[in-house]
């Protein structure tokens, strides 16, 4: 009836300042959010009864819930936590970029004002809720106590284990205690994982290194897009047909398998393929399509091969490019080499240029590049405007598309909206993004135009991994929002 997990005793259990990943994950058990998203980005309400978005306003109604000290949750506690989240240096602040302010309408209702309309804003409301001012409680020695939460567990007096929060609705779950092992640094974490001292261990594999633990594992979908960025100021790369040729020439399954060791989902569009809302509106081929690739290249006049097997046009212009990659990320370097090898089969020569992170980012900022391989973390509201609209924080090389560019041959984009697409197809990706948030374009419209215009070339979405003991069952829907999503249904077999 208990689990053993790792923690750092030198770190805090305050969710807005915890520095180690192991403590940040344990905070998910101590503090509940308004809502969570599961592994398919569906909303699951926690402390919130509902979250309704209308225009530039989100109204949240609260359930009747209690903190671990027995006091009732109020809207003022949510507002207090919202303000802490907004000013913190955490993922929660990053996700709440659209939120301007929060105020209590009454004891059970919170109204959040937004800087712009966003139909999926509620997806980011997974910031931890703490009791108002409980982060300021200290003991007689002036040491600050962990704040009070509405979590499934609470910290015991010795801070060496998590015990059941008697005020939590799921208090009768099979797992009644979390025993903690102090792992003060990454070396200790690796040791304890390797010998199986911990019952569960999660990694987002951000550095490319995987600590393997015996037992079972489940992949955690991350909204981290791996993509090829394109300098649209380049005469050749500004041609839509060439970008389409590069896209259709790639085997995304191969890149996921050999470049990311199956810790990625091949991208069939710009949005995460695990997201239910886009499963019928994205259809980029996951494997290479030679016919479409060659057709696009020949359409723009690259129908000859030189002595090196590189395609040229009638003016002798060659399809030779440089692909920048950060050499400090070994998985991305591996993926870049696979991309270069695959494209060479079609006469597109790509030289992989491995650069330090400083040199890599300097090249992007100055516009001194042709192609680059990168990763961007997309917030759970699925906002990709920073990547595909001119002036966006990740939109290196993006400029307003020329509607007179040579059209590339694409796989027909699905249209499930039932609307006529003639007018929308004339819009650029930037215009569609803005129209989508204004409510004048559908998600199907946006997915279709992005796939047709191809301002960047989506490759895959990375996944993390949760390892757990063979004796633990019913580990379902673990997600980046809460790796312990289904702990109420866990059971331990003897």
Helicity range: 10-25%
The rounded distance between the terminal residues' Cα atoms is: 10 Å
- What structural category characterises the helix and strand content? alpha+beta
Mean pLDDT: 91
Can you tell me the residue ranges where pLDDT is under 50 for at least 5 consecutive residues? Answer: 401-406, 411-426
Q: How much of the polypeptide forms β-strand, as a percent range?
A: 15-25%
What best-fitting shape do the alpha-carbon axes yield? Answer: globular
User: How many DSSP-defined strands?
Assistant: 21
Write up what this structure looks like.
By secondary structure, this protein is α+β, with helices and mostly antiparallel strands. Helices cover 23% and strands 23% of the residues. The strands form 6 sheets. Strands 11, 12, 13, 16, 17, 18 and 19 form a 7-stranded mixed β-sheet that branches. A 4-stranded mixed β-sheet has the order 1-10-9-8, sandwiched between helices. The longest helix is centred in the last third of the chain and has 15 residues, at 330-344. The radius of gyration is 25 Å and the shape is globular.
């Amino acid at each position: 009836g208990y689990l053993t997990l790792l923690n750092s005793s030198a770190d805090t259990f305050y969710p807005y300042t915890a520095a180690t990943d192991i403590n940040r994950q344990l905070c998910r058990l101590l503090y509940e959010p308004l809502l969570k998203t599961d592994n398919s980005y569906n909303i699951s309400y926690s402390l919130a009864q509902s979250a309704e978005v209308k225009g530039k306003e989100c109204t949240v109604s609260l359930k009747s819930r209690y903190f671990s000290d027995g006091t009732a949750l109020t809207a003022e506690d949510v507002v207090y936590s919202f303000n802490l989240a907004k000013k913190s240096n955490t993922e929660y602040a990053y996700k709440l970029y659209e939120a301007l302010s929060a105020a209590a309408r009454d004891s059970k209702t919170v109204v959040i004002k937004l800087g712009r309309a966003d139909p999926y804003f509620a997806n980011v409301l997974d910031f931890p809720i703490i009791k108002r001012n409980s982060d300021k409680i200290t003991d007689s020695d002036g040491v600050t106590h962990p704040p009070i939460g509405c979590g499934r567990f609470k910290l015991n007096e010795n801070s060496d284990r998590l015990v059941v929060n008697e005020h939590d609705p799921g208090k009768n779950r099979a797992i009644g205690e979390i025993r903690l092992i102090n792992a003060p640094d990454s070396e200790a974490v690796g040791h304890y994982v390797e010998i199986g001292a911990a019952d569960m261990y999660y990694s987002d594999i951000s550095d490319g290194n995987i600590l393997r633990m015996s037992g079972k594992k489940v992949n955690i979908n991350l909204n981290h897009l791996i993509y090829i960025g394109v300098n649209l100021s380049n005469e050749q790369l500004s041609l839509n047909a060439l970008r389409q040729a590069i896209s259709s020439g790639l085997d995304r399954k191969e890149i996921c398998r050999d470049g990311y060791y199956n810790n990625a989902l091949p991208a069939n569009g710009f949005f995460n393929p695990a997201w239910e809302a886009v499963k019928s509106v994205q259809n980029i081929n996951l494997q290479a399509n030679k016919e479409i690739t060659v057709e696009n290249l020949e359409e723009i006049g690259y129908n000859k091969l030189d002595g090196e097997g590189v395609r040229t046009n009638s003016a002798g212009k060659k399809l030779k490019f440089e692909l920048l990659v950060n050499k400090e990320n070994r998985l991305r370097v591996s993926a870049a080499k696979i991309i270069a090898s695959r494209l060479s089969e079609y006469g597109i020569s790509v030289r992989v240029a491995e650069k330090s992170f400083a040199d890599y980012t300097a090249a992007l900022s100055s516009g001194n590049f042709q192609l680059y391989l990168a990763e961007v973390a997309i917030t759970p509201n699925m906002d990709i405007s920073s990547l595909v609209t001119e002036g966006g924080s990740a939109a290196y090389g993006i400029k307003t598309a020329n509607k007179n560019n040579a059209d590339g041959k694409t796989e027909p984009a699905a249209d499930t909206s039932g609307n006529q697409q003639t007018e929308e197809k004339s819009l650029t990706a930037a215009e569609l993004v803005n129209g989508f948030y204004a409510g004048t374009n559908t998600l199907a419209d946006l997915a279709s135009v992005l796939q047709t215009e191809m301002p960047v070339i989506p490759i895959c979405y990375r996944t993390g991994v949760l390892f757990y003991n063979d004796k633990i069952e019913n580990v379902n829907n673990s997600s980046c929002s809460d790796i312990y999503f289904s702990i109420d249904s866990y059971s331990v077999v003897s």
